[in-house]
Amino acid sequence: MRPAKEALIVIDVQNDFCPGGALAVKDGDQIIPRINGLMDDYSAVILTQDWHPANHNSFAETHPGMAAFSTIDLPYGIQTLWPRHCVQGSPGAAFRSDLRTDPAQLIVRKGFRAAIDSYSAFFENDRTTPTGLTGYLVTRGIAKLVLVGLATDFCVAYSALDAARLGFGVTVLEGACRAIDLNGSLAKQRASMRDAGVGLVS
Ligand code: VGL
Ligand code: ZN
Which residues of the chain fall below pLDDT 70? Predict the structure, then answer.
């Protein structure tokens, strides 16, 4: 058993990010047995769930003429446009049926405001609007976080960088993550995480 002040945070292991899904991450499903096995070692287990309205601003379909995986300028900065994914209540937004969810004590839904995306489990993409997760962790006395899930270079990395900035000790178990790797994003985010003091462990 890991120390009580340490939490396992499982990022976005949802149908749309796995093979066959709308924004499939290569081999995204292959991390699930390992994640399931980790859950019994942690007294705090938290899941996140990407949870968008159908007209979300991060969807290419919301911007006529714009292609998926291109970028646009929004008031909070540059936003990558994604294929429509993880629409609230849709099968694609559900957790993979082989992911254990019973051990989770908290499920954080994010990206539920149409005007702003939220990669991180802590803040939306303006880096200031909080999800509330910080308060939950702090009031439970949790100081160290172990992050796994999808995708390494987007939601996992943004969460890890925010957590480090907030003062948590952060480890990313890369063997229990898979990446999108868009235009070199994986190498860039791995370097940023290292610079921020995030432990990268295979
Ligand atoms: C994610 C892109 C869009 C992720 C979520 O979970 O990494 N990536 N929405
Ligand atoms: Zn999303």
Answer: none
